[in-house]
Design goal:
Length: 174
């Protein structure tokens, strides 16, 4: 299955929702119109995700990043096909038989600003694009990234506002 270019689909307007204001960084997520929860809330409330053995570890690591080290580039898996959309965490399992890989897709804007998107479970080896749930998560995250990147280019928001939580505009993609 080949990943369709995310620009082929519009997911509509969305708002940015602050998830956590840590000592070293600020976590955000995005919520599309018509959805009751942000993409990160949907990720962490999905029963299949919550049952995954790495779930608690991923949440703990995100909290550590926000409060202790910031969002350093080396902590994120770079997807080779989509701009600044990254998979988190960059994990290698100690058990080579462990094929389930929990992925949370996000946008790293700086050491102090990370926007969380949806996630998935890769149920085998190979590229995430081979798994329909992952493909959709990547595409939704990339769509939001393109809109936010354009807003930054046009001066509607700044990375500093993402870092400080001082956004005056939180609705995008209209």
């Amino acid at each position: 299955m080949k990943l369709r270019h995310p620009s082929e689909r519009s997911y509509g307007p969305f708002i940015l929702v602050e998830v956590e204001d840590g000592k070293r960084g600020r976590l955000w997520s995005f919520q599309f119109d018509g959805q009751e929860r942000s993409e990160f809330d949907r990720f962490q409330n999905a029963s299949k995700i919550r049952c995954h053995p790495q779930f608690d570890n991923v949440l703990r690591q995100l909290d550590d990043l926000a409060n202790r080290s910031g969002f350093r580039e080396q902590g994120f898996k770079h997807e080779r096909y989509l701009d600044n959309v990254t998979g988190y965490p960059r994990v290698t399992f100690s058990d080579p038989k462990e094929y389930l890989k929990l992925r949370l897709y996000c946008m790293r804007f700086s050491l102090r600003a990370l926007v969380l998107g949806p996630g998935c479970i890769k149920e085998g080896r190979g590229d995430a694009e081979s798994y329909p749930g992952c493909e959709s998560a990547i595409q939704r995250t990339h769509y939001a990234y393109r809109i936010l990147k354009q807003a930054i280019r046009e001066g509607l928001i700044s990375i500093r506002e993402l870092e400080r939580g001082t956004l005056t505009t939180r609705r995008f993609g209209e």
